[in-house]
Amino acid sequence: MNYFVIVDVTLRRGIADPEGATIERALPALGFTGVTNVHAGKAFRFDVEAESEGAALEKATSLAQRLLSNPVIEDASARLGER
Amino acid sequence: MNYFVIVDVTLRRGIADPEGATIERALPALGFTGVTNVHAGKAFRFDVEAESEGAALEKATSLAQRLLSNPVIEDASARLGER
Amino acid sequence: MRSAPQPLHRALGLTDTELDIIRDVLGREPNSLELALYGVMWSEHCSYKSSRMHLRRLPTHGAHVLVGPGENAGVIDAGDGIAVAIRIESHNHPSAIEPYQGAATGVGGILRDVFTMGARPLAVMDPLFFGELTDARQRWLVEGVVSGISGYGNSVGVPTIGGELTFDDCYSSNPLVNVLCCGALPTERLVLGVASGVGNLAVLLGSSTGRDGIGGVSVLASAGFQGSDGAVSLDDAKRPSVQVGDPYEEKRLIEACLELLDERLVVGIQDLGGAGIVCATCETAARGGVGMDVDVTAIPLREEGMQPYEIMTSESQERMLAIITPENWDLVAALCAKWEVRATVIGHVVEPVTDDQGRSVGMLRIRDGFDGEILAQVPASSLADEAPLYDRPRRRPDDLDAINADDPTDDEPVGTPNDDLLGLLIDPAWVYRQYDSQLFLNTVVGPGSDAALLRLAGPGLPISERGIALSTDSNPRWCALDPRAGTALTVAESVANLACVGATAKAVVNCLNFGNPEHPEVMWQLTESIEGMALACSALDLPVVGGNVSLYNESGGHDIDPTPVVGLLGVVDSLVAPPPGWQWCEGDAVVLVGTRHASGPQKFPLGGTRWATKRGRRGGRVPEFEGEVLAKAIAFVAREISQICAGAASDVTAVHDVGGGGLSVALAEMVAVTGLGAQIIELEHHGELFAEFPGRFVMATNDLVAFRARADETGVPVVALGIVGGDALRIGETIDVAVGEVSSRRRGALEASLASLG
Amino acid sequence: MSRIGVVVFPGSNCEYDAAAAVEQLGDRAEFVWHTRTDLEGLDGVILPGGFAHGDYLRPGALARFSPVMAAVERFAQGGGSVLGICNGFQVLVEAGLLAGALQKNRGLTFLCQPTTLVVSSTSSILTRGATLGQELVVPINHFSGSYTCSDETYNELNRNGQIVLRYLENPNGSRNDIAAVANRLGNVVGLMPHPERAMSTLLGSADGRVLMESFLGLTGAPSFLAH
Ligand SMILES: Nc1ncnc2c1ncn2[C@@H]1O[C@H](COP(=O)(O)OP(=O)(O)O)[C@@H](O)[C@H]1O
Ligand SMILES: [Mg+2]
């Protein structure tokens, strides 16, 4: 079976996020107020060939942790998505 | 009210995604098989101060389209998230 | 909204007359695929149909010119068995809608032009033009373009060593992004994009083909796409699908192609740029006088359901076409596999046919399968070389006399000269810090000086002590007032920049960025500008070895100011020590070298200067171009500095040409980078602070007597301006600013403007 | 004369420059394609700057899976000298041969500029010939050079003299001005600045020589590994 999986990668708490901070600083000048705690992250989408949902997620999680994120600074998790 | 919003930014269909393609090409050598159609995207997480869920999403959508993405090559959509 | 459907040929950008010509060429009605091929190949962008007959005015010959205009890049013989290839191109319109990718793919395209000649790309330069930094959109454009050049150029591994940065409202919705690339190769290895040898294979290298930039060529280059409100209002039909660059693919493509050439495995090679496969196949076939069969089904695709016309005209990036003999296929395939570069046979060279008048004609045939049905069949040269040429109507703008008469030269100084001077200082370091300017260990003078200077060395090149110098220059303010003199002066200024690093100019490339050629005023500007370039190049004995024309640059219905950009390549015969640059020392004498007064009726003309423009005064006259006078001063400086480069002792400690902003700005720049003040004499006239005319240099010497004697010998005028030292820049009674203020205002100007926009 | 392997990943671009620096000092450099799996006979290995695998995903993230990296790890475990310059540093960190991580620069732009480095430890193959506190002008050239690590890791690195170079003025937001770190033994070092670009005054600075000479074993204690 083919499953569509999304892996979310976010910076770990406490790790500096200059990209998020820069966006947040730029907002008022563009007329956006009331937006705070901006964080920039990545998301990877792909198809996984697996026996079951569980197996697909397992494979994706392993990929997420071994390759798609750097555990020193990032958290990663996999979920099933809809195309 | 304060809402936690996630904006997903993905490349539009038909736009080349060299990052996704490069990751995909590398996978077999790392022992990952059966993973295809890899696409790399961005996700922004932030808090929005708004009257209602609808208003929060509207603000986030406008932000997504005006600042966080370029509609010429990217699609952006906002959704409510859980912290 | 949509009017009645127009006939296909018009939708493809072809006129009724052009359709008739196509019917004549084919002796029948073209089918729709054939029309699409003509549509892209006969677009302004590919065919230069509005400018080509005028470009013939430019001088292109010189003993050292190995390849002149018309090829992928111009090539000169730099000596010691090394040839240098150079090329400049614009990527204006794509950058207006997706600044990062537009600029990035501009870099990718220019690199391919250069390694197509067999040259390893050694340096990139990027003349950039934006609107004034007054709104967030300009900031988005500036940051996007600069990071696009940085992101692609750094990653692909070619240093970006200089450029230009101009802000003017005429570019606010139509920024200009020009990119120049220079490369080097052993002279004996020069290759051209020629297909020859019936039975040879056409091999597509690199990326797969998608719907990127389909019809982008004709749509972008043959029709404006700005709404009258100045906003970019693309309807979906016209929206060019933007191309995304992949510097990693390009890097591998460069290495693979250079290795293919080293191993002598290719007969000819051609990059795929505008108009994609159709352009590359018809050009190589036309150059070789042969035919070519292309199997449209063989081309690796990135998307499903692509039509033959989409496949043939797609502008997907990072692709090359190599012509090889069938015996070499296995070796080519293996070499490409090593670099992880895809290689696919997509066609082969066939005999030319004989037409009914007995002429031999190479046909480009698009087939559905290797021996499949013929989908299109047209003479290759009719696509590549035989677009109709237009001598479009020209007219000197009616208001130009009034504009010339509105001269700021006699304006009373208002405000304080100190503030005027400080307001003109801007350090482009924020831009060039983002570029790797040092890769390959050749960069003796990087960005931030008058010209860049590189050791002429690289993998695979014969050993040489020579250096090459590069400068790009433009002055749209001059060219708006007088495109002929303005362009001539721009060339002179560029040659002067080279002299500051000890180099003698050897070749020119140019990128002519102009408005809508259907406006007679724009055609007048274009032809005048070409005249001016021809004039200056003849006077200074400089061949033009290549160029690019970008038309339809309009902002909100207004044409941009005429913006010819020149790129100059110079050579330093012996480069063992760095030139002195702007680094003067305490106690040095400061001198002005060259004529003190401008040629023409005005001693210190202020028309078109940065000083006048800043005050909203855009009228006036520009100085006259006096080739002989300029050439003498320039040659003197080049000789003085080249001796230092060759390792000789010298009393000259610093040199800087007087460019944008005039004499006071040149002095202030030297103060800013050294942190040393200077005491300068009272000038003749307040206009002398800010007047701009080339052929003048500020130099510093620790032996004024000896220096003056050498200048006198050559008849080059020298004025002693003052002495280096103190904690301020003082010019007579007029200017007095602290060194710290000069440095910090210059350093912070660009960041401050960007930061003020959120 | 030493034989130094310069690893070439697809996308590397400073391999010629690193080799030139080695050869300028009289040693021999040879390119090691990333698919090679033995480093037999080499006296040292350099992972040069550039954009291995396009820097896609994260700098170094794909390169660390290249076949050559297992060999580099064995080479390091055997006490061999391994130097990662810029992208090479990023690869070593991703591969876990050095601690910490490299994030995007504080200003979110690529930076190519001279920096002044201060030698903060001489217990490494890169700095053994330098003196503590010595200032060296060496250019940086990177987008992701902001060194990050946990407090724990930092304290350990600091205590063991593994932070070998610091910036005099921090250009990129790097934690505690860190420009170069070594492993515990000092035989594996990564630095963001480019010593190979500072080998001659014609190109602006010759201060990188002392670092390259140290690495090649031309100066400094023949072995500090004992300590
Ligand atoms: N867009 C740019 N990219 C790289 N370098 C630039 C750019 N703009 C300006 N520079 C560099 O800054 C220096 C000053 O530029 P400019 O003011 O045009 O000099 P000049 O007036 O002598 O032609 C030059 O070395 C130039 O190469
Ligand atoms: Mg210039």
Observed structural traits:
heterotetramer, A: alpha+beta, Mth169, Chain: A, three-stranded antiparallel sheet, 3 strands, C: 758 residues, alpha+beta, seven-stranded mixed sheet, 26 helices, 30 strands, 23% strand, globular, binds adenosine-5'-diphosphate, binds magnesium ion
Task: Describe, in plain words, how this protein is organized in 3D.
Helix content of chain A is 30%, strand content 39%. Chain A is an alpha+beta fold and 83 residues long. Chain A has one domain: 2-Layer Sandwich (Mth169, Chain: A), CATH 3.30.1280. The radius of gyration of chain A is 16 Å and the shape is elongated. By secondary structure, chain C is an alpha+beta fold. Helices cover 35% and strands 23% of the residues of chain C. Chain C has 26 helices and 30 strands. In chain C, the strands form six sheets. Chain C has a seven-stranded mixed sheet with strand order 8-10-7-11-9-14-15. The relative contact order of chain C is 0.13. Chain D has one domain (3-226): Rossmann fold (3-Layer(aba) Sandwich). Helix content of chain D is 19%, strand content 26%. Chain D has helices spanning 15-24, 68-77, 87-94, 151-159, 209-215, and strands spanning 3-8, 28-33, 44-47, 81-85, 101-103, 111-119, 135-142, 146-148, 163-167, 178-182, 188-191. In chain D, helix 2 links the parallel strand 3 (44-47) and strand 4 (81-85). The radius of gyration of chain D is 15 Å and the shape is globular. Chain D starts with a strand and ends in a 12-residue tail after the last helix. The chains are: A alpha+beta (83), C alpha+beta (758), D alpha/beta (227). Chains in contact: A-B, A-C, A-D, B-C, B-D, C-D. Chain A binds chain B through residues 8, 10, 20, 23-24, 26-27, 30, 32-50, 59, 63, 66-68, and chain B through 8, 10, 20, 23-24, 27, 30, 32-50, 59, 62-63, 66-68. Strand 2 (35-49) of chain A pairs antiparallel with strand 2 of chain B. Magnesium ion (MG) is lined by residues 164, 471, 473, 497 of chain C. Residues 126, 128, 162-165, 428, 431-432, 447-450, 473, 497, 659-660 of chain C line the site of adenosine-5'-diphosphate.
